[in-house]
Amino acid sequence: MTRLLPALRILAIIWVVITVVFVTLRLTPGDPAELLLGPTAGRQDVQERLADIRAQYGLDQPIPVQYAIFVGNVLQGDLGESNRSARPVISMIAAAAPVTIWLIVLSVGTAIPISIFLGMIAAARRGRTLDRGIRSLATLCMAVPSFWLGLLFLQWFASGLGWFPSRGYVAPLTDPGGFMMHMALPVITLAIFLVGTLTRFVYTETADTLQRDYITVSRAMGLASRTILFRFAAKNSLTPLIIVVGVEIGTLIGGAVIVEEVFGLPGLGRLLLGAVMSRDYPVVQGTILVITVAVILINIAAEMLYRYITPQARS
Amino acid sequence: MNAPLLDVRDAEIVFTARRGGVTRHIQAVSGASISVARGQTVGLVGESGSGKSTLGAAAIGLQALDGGEVLFDGTPMPAEGSPAWRTLRRRVQVIFQDPFSALNPRQTIGQSLAEPLRLHSMGPRRSWPDRIAELLELVGLNPEMARQYPGTLSGGQRQRVCIARALAVEPDLIVCDEITSALDVSTQAQIVALIADIQKRMGVALLFISHDLGLVRAIADRTAVMYLGRIMEAGPAGEVFETPRHPYTRALLGAAPIPDPVLEARRERIPLRGEIPDPADPPSGCRFRTRCPHAREECAKRTPLPEPAGGAIVACHFWREITGTEDRS
Question: Is A218 in Cβ contact with B98 (below 8 Å)?
Fold first, then answer.
């Protein structure tokens, strides 16, 4: 029973999320059928054609019936088809997901070492000019909006200096060089925000650890300050970072939506945004469901990894 | 052999604190001297904020001095990180107040105890497990505990581990900084009994810092009383406690309860008025004068220097008159 509880909780979270998405989509103004019809919507046979479309996508059914069909399909692993392209939602997600995964993995991979370095230096130099400088920088990184920073980068490095392509994406296996060039600006934009959050966290944890008496005892026993910082302080203050990165994944996906839109990356964020704009209900619902499951799984993985690394958290 | 093991001479320690653009110089220790002979237990007492912990840290080189000097075995304190500093680290150890903060939560007890052995190459590595078991038994713990993490231990058990860790390298001097004040009363007594017993058996010298006069009285050979960064009175523990001469010592002893109800009812009480002054702006002359019932004009003008009084030293201009009048009444 107790073993089942976490699983039930996860199912409950997923159910709440897809239900809220389902309901909000239908409360949002804008008729998917009209949007699908586009400019031709003014013609005479319009009512008839709208009725056809609605019938084709099941939009003529009462909302509770639509909901029941949707949940039934999800339970069978069927996310439906796009209203616009008639492609299966699952294959659209499969095509877009690698872009977002790369964006997030590269951003996290860039941000973590930088944050550890900056945070630990600041903690070791607590109260000095360097510490204050690093912490101000971290706050600035957190405060600057990603979309604005992204546009600035585009203007400077893509349009202005022409160092990087301004839009688009190339798969890493097709053209590794082009992939790096296309990903550089989006990754830096997203990583800057993450560096702000993580540096502050590493700083707080390390500063707290360095104040512990066992650090002073180690110093009194003759351990060099640098060894103390890298051996004890690092180990003790960096393990909680795993949990924080897990928690930040949700925020990062939110950030990825914006960054993908600014840099024209065909990832999950852009897919979602486009689907919301055209009221492509199945795509929005399916994408959100996949993102929710991914966030939950990443958090569980982070927690398991943390428990594995810290022996005293196990007992 | 006549030189004391630890000799702190006229130590000056000033902390600079910047708050709201205002720089404050806090005189934590001003001109304090204290010495500890081999195998001796010296009690250092005073209220919180008196600078006793800072002086204790300076005594083993963990706190830099702004004046004066620390001689260990007749040699000045070497610079941190130098080879001489490394050697000295084996000879002095420290035990802190909070046993919850003093053990690395990610190391087992065994790993924590192996650390000093490793740092000072105490015997071959394969001998460590036996040595660790021996240390745990010495402080009255089950050797099986070496496999546990500090999280599963009580405060008293953790403090025993800290004592074992300090003893691991067979030091000459251990600074005990308020080692009982984070523990409950019954545990305090056990820890003090343990440290006193170990002191006798191993002949290690102790600098026992505490605000608890009863504990210091029970354990110390000599006692120094500190107030606002200065030593007010120092001498053989018996003498300081039986015939206190400085008005501050007398007030402190007046505040500590006596376990004998007859004596407790009979004794005179000189209440200590007010709070300890701001160490960033200490009183001129005698630092205790703002709270001293005997303060006169003279006390604000001249700083009393420690002068011999019986077997002790006292830093008060008028201790002769004060002890004379009070003891007669």
Answer: no
Poorest-pLDDT segment among A21-30, A49-58, B2-11, B172-181? A49-58
B149 contacts A217? CB cut-off 8 A: no
Chain centroid to Cα B291, Å, comes to 23
How many CA within 13 A on the CB side of residue A195?
A: 25
Number of H helices, E strands in chain A: 13, 0
What are the tens digits of pLDDT across the range B111-165?
999 999 998 888 888 999 999 999 999 999 999 999 999 988 999 999 999 999 9
What is the distance in angstroms between the Cα of A297 and the nearest Cα belonging to chain B? 27
Q: Which of B86, B102, B151 faces A222 most closely, judged by CB atoms?
A: B86
Question: Which tokens in the block code for residue B197?
Answer: 């017993």
Query: What pLDDT score does A159 carry?
Result: 74
Per the CB < 8 Å rule, is A213 touching B106?
no
Between chains, do A221 and B115 touch, taking CB under 8 Å as contact?
yes
* Chain A residues with CB-CB distance to B116 below 8 A: 221
Confidence check: pLDDT of B171 > 90: yes
Same domain, A69 and A110: no
* Nearest C-alpha in A relative to B96: A213
- Statement to judge: residues A156 and A283 lie in one domain: yes
Residue A39 per-residue DSSP state: G
Q: Is A310 on the interface with B (CB under 8 A)?
A: yes
Which residues of chain A make contact with B89, given a CB cutoff of 8 A? 220-222
Specify whether A41 is located in the same domain as A112. no
For B120-256, strand residue ranges (E) read 173-177, 205-210, 222-227, 230-236
A209–B contact, CB cutoff 8 A: no
Residue B233's φ and ψ, nearest 5 degrees, are -155, 140
A203 with A67, same domain: the answer is no
Can you list the residues of chain A whose pLDDT is less than 50? Answer: 315
Q: What is the pLDDT of residue A73?
A: 87
Mean pLDDT on B26-31: 89
Query: Where in the sequence is the domain holding A259, given as residue range(s)?
Result: 96-313
Same domain (yes/no): A51, A127: no
SS3 assignment, position A213: helix
CATH dotted code for B6-328: 3.40.50.300
More confident residue, A101 or B293: A101
